[in-house]
Write a structure and sequence with these properties.
This protein is α+β, with helices and mostly antiparallel strands. It has three helices and ten strands; from the N terminus they run E-E-H-E-E-E-E-H-E-H-E-E-E. The strands form two sheets. The chain has an eight-stranded mixed sheet with strand order 1-2-4-3-7-8-9-10, with helices on both faces. A two-stranded antiparallel ribbon has the order 5-6. The longest helix is centred in the N-terminal third of the chain and has 13 residues.
Length: 158
């Protein structure tokens, strides 16, 4: 896989590399989104040997079957799974599901109790990596969280 421009978000054992293209896509969505309804998608990435970090390389955006409501976003498998399958194939089976992202109509987003409950359920699933990432795109900031060893930890906000 070719080297991509990225930034490291967080520090210590709470950090992740994020492709600049992903940051830009989320910022573009943030600027164009009305925030009247929550939206979201999945987070995709791979282990970047040169950085010795997981790299968030791609995100999906709302698909036709997703449920976007004032205070909730329900991601359906249709559309997202096909995009994930294509990314996995094109990457030589290196890219994998790393988590979920969605919007909140808050400047400085914080996870709701429902977010935390859903994230912990997701973290119990069998996946290729033992760490998951969750992103909330607010009206001003983008927050990054992880669950590792059943503990929810905020990584950073940008």
């Amino acid at each position: 896989m070719q080297k991509i421009d990225s930034i490291i978000i967080g520090n210590g054992n709470k950090k992740v590399a994020v492709a600049m293209e992903v940051i830009q896509k989320l910022r573009d969505f943030q600027e164009s989104h009305s925030f009247s309804k929550e939206s979201g998608g999945i987070i995709v990435g791979y282990y970047e040997n040169s950085l010795r970090e997981l790299m968030i390389s791609d995100v999906t955006f709302p698909q036709a079957d997703d449920v976007c409501g004032r205070y909730r976003f329900v991601r359906k498998i249709t559309g997202h799974q096909e995009i994930m399958d294509s990314l996995w194939e094109k990457s030589g089976r290196k890219k994998s599901y790393l988590g979920e992202w969605h919007t909140h109509n808050q400047g400085d987003p914080i996870p709701s109790p429902i977010d935390k409950l859903n994230w912990k359920k997701i973290a119990k699933r069998e996946q290729n990596f033992d760490v998951f990432f969750f992103v909330i795109v607010g009206t001003d900031k983008i927050g990054f969280w992880t669950i590792h060893d059943s503990m929810l930890k905020q990584i950073d906000k940008i």
